[in-house]
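for the recovery benchmark. tokens below, seq after
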């Protein structure tokens, strides 16, 4: 059968074929989802080569366990969940290392420092947030980024920021409003996890 015709298969049929050692069907699934899964893993890992390795390992694991393969959801959902879990497991294993590096990160990367007594889960969570938050802040206009950093990263009050920058408190409030609006748009497009952070800071 021509590989393009595999698109007519139901997910159950594809799983059945893979379980029966059909390499052509497996290759079809691999080629169909590989790049988008790499892009998805990159959202967590921020390293292209590592993202590719995670996706490759996911497919290798599926092929090695093909005889016992059971997928209750769609194949796409199963693959995305598997890649997500494998990515998060990697972040967990590196949480301590990330915590140590965060204290030596340059100020322009806007780090969220991880407490030394944080659990692995807490450290991993903070590491994930740090990656996305850094990107979001970098995408802000210069003034918004400066004010946001002073208030949310360095912990200054609106009045303290106003005094330090020589502007009014209302200007700080207005710039923060702009910052949060842009951050919400950026975050929604890149990572829903960061919405939790925005809610946590009380905006």
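predicted aa per position
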């Amino acid at each position: 059968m021509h590989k393009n015709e595999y698109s007519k298969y139901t997910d159950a049929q594809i799983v059945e074929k893979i379980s029966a050692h059909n390499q052509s069907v497996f290759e079809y699934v691999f080629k169909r989802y590989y790049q988008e899964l790499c892009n998805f893993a990159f959202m967590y890992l921020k390293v292209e080569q590592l993202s590719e390795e995670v996706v490759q390992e996911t497919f290798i694991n599926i092929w090695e366990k093909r005889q016992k393969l059971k997928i209750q959801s769609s194949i796409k959902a199963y693959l995305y969940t598997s890649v997500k879990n494998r990515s998060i497991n990697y972040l967990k294993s590196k949480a301590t290392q990330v915590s140590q590096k965060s204290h030596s990160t340059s100020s322009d990367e806007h780090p969220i420092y991880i407490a030394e007594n944080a659990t692995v889960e807490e450290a991993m969570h903070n590491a994930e947030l740090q990656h996305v938050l850094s990107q979001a802040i970098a995408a802000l206009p210069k003034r918004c980024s400066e004010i946001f950093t002073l208030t949310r990263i360095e912990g200054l009050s609106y009045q303290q920021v106003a005094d330090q920058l020589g502007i009014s408190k209302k200007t700080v409030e207005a710039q923060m409003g702009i910052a949060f609006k842009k951050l919400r748009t950026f975050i929604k497009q890149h990572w829903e996890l960061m919405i939790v952070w925005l809610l946590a800071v009380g905006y």
